[in-house]
């Protein structure tokens, strides 16, 4: 289980940086190297996948509203 809101800010930023490198911010060669490094040191929390991380509060709020509706 990942607890993205409990990560230290430094680790959060390292994972976000890792995502950018893996997405090719520094070129294809560094993207391949970055992905191997991310897997080797397990930089795979939500901060490493920015869109999912950013969407999680909205998703949780929507789910809470849907659960509160009468059935």
**Helix content class:** 55-70%
By DSSP (H or I, 4+ residues per run), the number of helices equals 3
Measured by DSSP, the beta-strand proportion falls in under 5%
How many beta strands in the DSSP annotation? 0
The major sheet is characterized as: none
Outline: elongated
What oligomeric state best describes the polypeptide chains here?
Answer: single chain
Distance between the first and last residues' Cα: 30 Å
Rounded to the nearest angstrom, the radius of gyration is: 15 Å
Helix/sheet category: mainly alpha
Q: What low-confidence regions span 5 or more consecutive residues with pLDDT below 50?
A: none
Write the layout of secondary structure elements.
Layout: H1 9-22, H2 28-40, H3 50-68
Helix pairs in contact: 1-2
In brief:
With 71 residues, the protein is mainly α. The chain is built from three helices and no strands.
Describe the structure.
With 71 residues, this protein is mostly helical. The chain contains three helices and no strands. It has helices at residues 9-22, 28-40, 50-68. α1 (9-22) packs across α2 (28-40). It is elongated, with a radius of gyration of 15 Å.
């Amino acid at each position: 289980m990942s607890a993205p809101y409990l990560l230290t800010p430094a680790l959060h930023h390292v994972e976000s940086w890792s995502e950018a490198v893996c997405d090719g911010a520094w070129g294809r060669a560094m993207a391949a190297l970055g992905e191997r490094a991310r897997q080797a040191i397990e930089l795979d929390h939500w901060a490493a996948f920015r869109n999912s991380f950013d969407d999680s509060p909205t998703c949780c709020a929507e789910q809470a509203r849907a659960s509160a509706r009468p059935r």
